[in-house]
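Input (structure):
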C-alpha cells in the first residue's frame, strides 16, 4: 500500500475539519469538526504504523488512546453545549461571549471630577466616586 493515499485523505479530512472550526457558528458543528480533525490524525497514525511495520504497533495503540480521549471530549462538550442551550436558548458561538462573569460596570467605571460632578464614563483624568457601589451591587441597584 502506498502511503500517499491515506496521507492525502487525512490532509483533506483535517482541512475540512479546520474549515468547520473556523467558519461555523453552531457549537455542535464545531465539535463535529474537531472530531473530524481527530479522525484524520488517527488515520495518519494507523497508516504510518502499517507503513513502518512497527512490531509494537505503537501507532494503533496511540489511536486507541486518541479515540478514548475523543469520546470523553465529546461527552463533556455536549454536556456544556446542552447547559448553555438551556440557559441561553441558542448554541451560537458568537453569543457565548456574554457568559463571562465580568461586570460591565467594573470595566468602565463612572468618572468623577473629584468635586462631586460626574464627568462621564471612562473620561481621562477622572476618578471614581468613592461612595458609589461597585460591581454587582451597582448592577442590582440599577435594576431595583
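Output (sequence):
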Amino acid at each position: 500500500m502506498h502511503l500517499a493515499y491515506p496521507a492525502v485523505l487525512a490532509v483533506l479530512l483535517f482541512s475540512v475539519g479546520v474549515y468547520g472550526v473556523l467558519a461555523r457558528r453552531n457549537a455542535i458543528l464545531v465539535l463535529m469538526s474537531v472530531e473530524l480533525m481527530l479522525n484524520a490524525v488517527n488515520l495518519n497514525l494507523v497508516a504510518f504504523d502499517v507503513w513502518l511495520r512497527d512490531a509494537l504497533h505503537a501507532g494503533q495503540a496511540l489511536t486507541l488512546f486518541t479515540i478514548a480521549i475523543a469520546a470523553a471530549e465529546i461527552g463533556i462538550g455536549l454536556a456544556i453545549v446542552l447547559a448553555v442551550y438551556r440557559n441561553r436558548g441558542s448554541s451560537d458561538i458568537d453569543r457565548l461571549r456574554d457568559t463571562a462573569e465580568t461586570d460591565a460596570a467594573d470595566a468602565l467605571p463612572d468618572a468623577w471630577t473629584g468635586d462631586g460632578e460626574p464627568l462621564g464614563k471612562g473620561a481621562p483624568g477622572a476618578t471614581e466616586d468613592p461612595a458609589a457601589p461597585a460591581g454587582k451591587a451597582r448592577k442590582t441597584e440599577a435594576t431595583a
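Notes: The chain has five helices and three strands. The first helix runs from residue 4 to 23.
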